[in-house]
Amino acid sequence: MSRKFIGADGTHIKNSKVQYFEGNLVFASKNAFNLQTLSRRDDVISLAYLLIYLLEGKLPFIGGSSTMGNQPLSYQDIRDHKIAMKPEDLCAGPKSRILLPFLREAYSL
Hints:
mainly alpha
């Protein structure tokens, strides 16, 4: 979840790195995997992942289950897939195509 973005002096708090991953592996944004401070943008991206999952019943980077073959997906596997994917890859399903403009906008923030 995002943090406060306005400091006590009324200025916007700058983006920074965090020490550890925060969030859910499946619904966390690329920025969470890059250990960046989470923002409202990341909440919107997480919402997009959830909506895609609800529409399609799966997400491209988890293949519809928590394993690929017989091996559980690792943090690194999911991270690599998410970083490489573009909005077009995520919204490739017939039902989730409607979310493509939404996800493009979220990624552009």
